[in-house]
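Exercise 7b. Backbone tokens:
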């Protein structure tokens, strides 16, 4: 019998399979899309995520990130990442996915085409996509069908936020992830190396990408109209699960819940929760996973919720960058807490 059946072959699912293989467990990944898989995301990986990739033996190119910079017009505040665990990483989503996919295959993980769209559980096994395993890890993303099918979807408050991303063929002008603020939303500029930057826009407003950019007059001239590739979108972003554990099914990554892309920790949390799930299973203690998930994600959830609350109100939104400039120690502390 398979030890772990993984539903979804994105970063969270592939990381789960790699962790399982390194722990001496057999993992099979079920994924309908061919690798590499692209997705609308900011493509910046926080230092803890970059460290987690190295620990898994995954070598990936990209652009080293020194820290986070907030910009609002002529006002700028920045925080450099601490020396340990080191720099972050700006990397194309397809490059990251290809590296995870290759590492999983090298470790003997079987990746089969298909979709886990129904689950049957008993006391000692779980079946999905025609395969039977001791455990199932649901890593099927933000809009997780398995989370919904298991009755784990929890209501989320309004307003809804959406993300759009596009690449630009231009040399990165910074080693920071730049967050440009406006009353309409935020634009995230991530250097990706090799004459490429990614620009992701987060907003409550659903309108064309180019219209979003008009809210950032200091950013548009830097891009020079050198767009490359299509605009990709994602959302609504906020998702909640009643629990990351349901019988013999564990939820990891975005499937287990997501607050917002505002603090850029999606990949880092996907890698961390994947590792925690496998360690709990390897120790024969699946019941310990919900508490571990809560501890791993608590700081991110609290800080992101607080910043999202401030950003969503006109009176406080316009104070975020001035406050970061006025009290740089507090801004550094917040960035380091998320690092």
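Sequence design result:
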């Amino acid at each position: 019998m398979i030890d772990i059946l993984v539903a979804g072959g994105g970063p969270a699912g592939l990381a789960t399979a790699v962790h399982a293989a390194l722990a001496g467990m057999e993992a099979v990944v079920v994924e309908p899309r061919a690798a590499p898989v692209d997705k609308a995301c900011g493509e910046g990986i926080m230092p803890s995520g970059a460290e987690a990739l190295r620990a898994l033996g995954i070598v990936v190119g990209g652009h080293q990130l020194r820290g986070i910079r907030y910009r609002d017009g002529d006002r700028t505040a920045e925080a450099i990442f601490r020396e340990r665990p080191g720099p972050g990483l700006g990397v194309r989503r397809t490059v990251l996915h290809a590296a995870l996919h290759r590492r999983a295959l090298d470790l003997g993980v079987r990746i089969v085409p298909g979709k886990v769209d129904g689950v049957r559980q008993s006391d000692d096994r779980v079946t999905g996509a025609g395969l039977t395993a001791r455990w199932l890890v649901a890593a099927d993303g933000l809009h997780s069908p398995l989370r919904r099918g298991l009755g784990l979807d929890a209501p989320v408050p309004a307003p809804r936020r959406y993300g759009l991303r596009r690449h630009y063929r231009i040399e990165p002008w910074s080693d920071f992830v730049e967050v440009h603020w406006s009353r309409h939303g935020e634009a995230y500029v991530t250097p990706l190396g090799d004459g490429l930057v990614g620009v992701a826009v987060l907003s409550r407003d659903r309108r064309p990408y180019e219209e979003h950019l008009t809210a950032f007059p200091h950013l548009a001239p830097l891009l020079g109209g050198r767009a490359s590739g299509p605009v990709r979108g994602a959302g609504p972003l906020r998702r909640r699960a009643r629990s990351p554990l349901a019988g013999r099914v564990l939820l990891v990554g975005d499937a287990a819940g997501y607050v917002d892309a505002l603090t850029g920790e999606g990949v880092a949390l996907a890698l961390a929760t994947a590792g925690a799930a496998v360690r709990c299973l390897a120790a024969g203690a699946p019941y310990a996973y919900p508490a571990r998930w809560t501890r791993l994600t608590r700081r991110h959830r609290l800080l992101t919720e607080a910043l999202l609350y401030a950003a969503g109100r006109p009176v406080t939104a316009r104070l975020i960058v001035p406050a970061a400039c006025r009290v740089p120690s507090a801004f550094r502390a917040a960035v380091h807490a998320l690092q």
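Instructor comment: Residues 28 and 110 are 5 Å apart (CA to CA). The two ends are 39 Å apart (CA to CA).
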